[in-house]
Design a protein that fits this description.
This protein is mainly beta and 192 residues long. The protein has 1 helix and 12 strands; from the N terminus they run αββββββββββββ. It is 3% helix and 31% strand. It has a 5-stranded mixed β-barrel. Strands 6-7-8 form a 3-stranded antiparallel beta sheet, with no helix packed on it. β2 and β3 form a beta hairpin. The radius of gyration is 30 Å and the shape is elongated. The N and C termini lie far apart (98 Å).
Length: 192
């Protein structure tokens, strides 16, 4: 066996200890035997918990088989296929993925996307679209106006489950305070 062959060995992950500061693996080595306590070196800022059956390249520094390090862990079972040159993906075994596509497109696929921000979230975009509902559990504020359009034929453009307070609106140089009466459903336009 060559000296390099004694230093680098393929293995299959069988157990993971992700509770330690440097994650450790138990690997079944292709060269034979099971190796416990293999340190899993990961790039700064990235970590994952490999699934049982993931593949690893295990290195033995100086050929010392008493201490192995996993240089790379991959899992061909879940890797997104057919990426274009230059595209990058983060993925899970459940089919979730974040793919940075060519053309400066970030494509996130998941069941629930949860953002925890203690101060605020900012979107610097001319348009934000949703294919279905947008629900605000707090106050909804529009600083440059708001347009409400009806959906399907016969569907109301807007419904309000509480009284609406509106400031006076200027129409043709006259102030109007328009309101609907709860008792009759009639609308009153007050012109001054």
């Amino acid at each position: 066996m060559s000296k390099l062959g004694a230093w680098l060995v393929r293995g299959v992950v069988s157990l993971v200890n992700s509770a330690s500061k440097m994650q450790t693996l138990q690997t079944r080595l292709m060269a034979g035997g099971v190796k416990d306590g293999v340190e899993h070196f990961e790039p700064y800022g990235f970590t994952s918990h490999p699934m049982d059956g993931a593949e690893a390249i295990v290195g033995f520094l100086g050929g010392d088989s008493s201490h192995g390090v996993a240089l790379v862990v991959a899992d061909r079972r879940f890797r997104p296929l057919n990426l274009k040159p230059g595209e990058v993906a983060i993925f899970t075994n459940e089919g979730d993925s974040l793919i940075l596509r060519n053309g400066r497109i970030a494509e996130l696929t998941t069941g629930t996307f949860r953002v925890n921000a203690s101060e605020k979230i900012e979107f610097n975009s001319p348009v934000v679209e949703a294919s279905e509902q947008v629900v605000a559990k707090g106050k909804l504020t529009a600083q440059s106006g708001m347009a409400v359009r009806a959906g399907a034929a016969g569907e109301e453009a807007a419904t309000f489950d509480a009284p609406i307070r509106t400031p006076d609106v200027i129409v043709n140089n006259k102030s109007t305070a328009r309101h609907r009466h709860a008792e009759t459903g009639g609308i009153t336009d007050e012109m001054q």
